[in-house]
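Moderator note: this is an archived Q&A kept for reference. The question asked for a predicted structure of one protein chain; the sequence and the answer are reproduced below.
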Amino acid sequence: MKKIKERLSFIYNNQDIEGLFTEIEKRIAKTKAKSLKPRKQNWDQEDLVLITYGDQFYEDDYPTLETFKKFFDHYLSDKFDMVHLLPFYPYSSDDGFSVIDYKKVNPVLGNWNEIEKLSKSTRIMFDDVCNHISAESDWFQEYLKGNPEYDGFFVEMDPSADLSAVTRPRALPLLTKFTLANGEEKHIWTTFSEDQIDLNFSNPQVLFRMIDVLLFYLEQGAEYIRLDAIGFMWKEVGTSCIHLEKTHEIVKLFRDVVEEAAKGTVIITETNVPHKDNVSYFGNGKDEAHMVYQFPLPPLVLYSIHNGNGRALTKWADELPPTGIDTTFFNFLASHDGIGLNPIRGIISEDEILEMVEDLIKEGALVNYKKNPDGSESPYEINVTYLDALNKKSDEDEIRVKRFLLAHSILLTLPGVPAVYIQSMLGSRNDYEGVSKTGMNRSINRKKYSINEIETELMSTDSLRRKIFTELTTIIQTRKNESLFHPNTAMEVMDLGDKVFAFKRMNSRDDSLIVINNLTNETVTCDLTGSFININTGEKISFVEDMPLNPYQFLWLKPIKQEGK
């Protein structure tokens, strides 16, 4: 609580914060007085996260969360001990990220009873969409009516102000004009869209309201909290308005709050930005985010397999700083969003990025663009399922499966907690019909399914979905059973040539495991000798120099220790 008070004083420039502190103290006490679900205090190799929408599966006359639980219990509960439910609140746009009411469940999905029932099958990760709220929300509508309670809840800005330094994630206007009930016109800060109104955290009551929401989520069973678009939270004219010092201080405050209220709750920051800025949200390793999204991983793995060259991936992995015991990476390849390109700018040359984008467009991918300070536009996100990103339209399913499993070999074995998107588990292809319906490129990777339709395909022995689901399940189970894949086990990157991405995981007891990935569609050789157990198959393998690797083959190898050593 002392830390919380100090942070409030810093955020609000030593103003009188006694009243605010007292409100927060009482709100935390209210949460602590409830009988919360016990939290796991440390992560380990068994922690795998499934990313999904709450209405991913549907059937007549049932709330979709009930249908999802039925599917999860039957097909996924032995693979994932955590489900990231993407925003399941009432919303007006952006598939949930324009939240109308933070404390309600979208009626199509069900109600809080469905969330409680699901929490008995798995741990749950909630989205805290704390940077902005829907234009249709009561908060914003009351502001437009002139309700003094909501005065200062949003960022009013003179349109003539020089905002040229502000970082723009989208090629859309930064300010949106609204007319108040009294006829007065106001230009309001809208970072992401005219329907997503930025909250004004310089108003202490906004901060308190969002702390109240955060604690409410803990009470409803959230064990992981994803802070959406957190980097944009604090605004100061004349700056980039991203990653500002007070933004970091608010994240630290949120961590203090959850650790006081329910220790074991994990705070994850979502900042789709270059690596240096991303890992800055670890703070000193003990005071800010517990996890940060490993945003360079999806485009880097795609680039490496696309080009059959792991030079950039190897260099990047070799330079990854080790995390402390209180932090780790949140690793993923696919999500509800597209494949972000900003995190690899500086790792991959702009010409190579643009070349890859052009190649993917030819194969059916869509692209979203961002506006640069000079007025030009650059691609910032590739919209495509990860399966189709890795492959050409003309490829046979056998090759599709090999490339896809290779990519997930990398995901499941790097330091960190891995997360798999539901569309990846299902082996989904591009949904162009969905794009046509919504007019949004991101809909290409957000298809919802009748539960009967998806179960039929998963039971069909020759379907691509079944092949991917079955093979991916196998390596997920292997990862969960291997302690050397603990998120904080050390990694040593190996140089086995540009066509191979390889590294060793090792603990303090001199136990080790080597992961080798052939990034190409050709047989390659690498310099490795010794006797090993392939933990994916259980077979013993002895290698001499110039060991051959089949196209897109990956091996997880445990050295066979000689007696007496």
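Archived answer notes: The mean pLDDT is 95.
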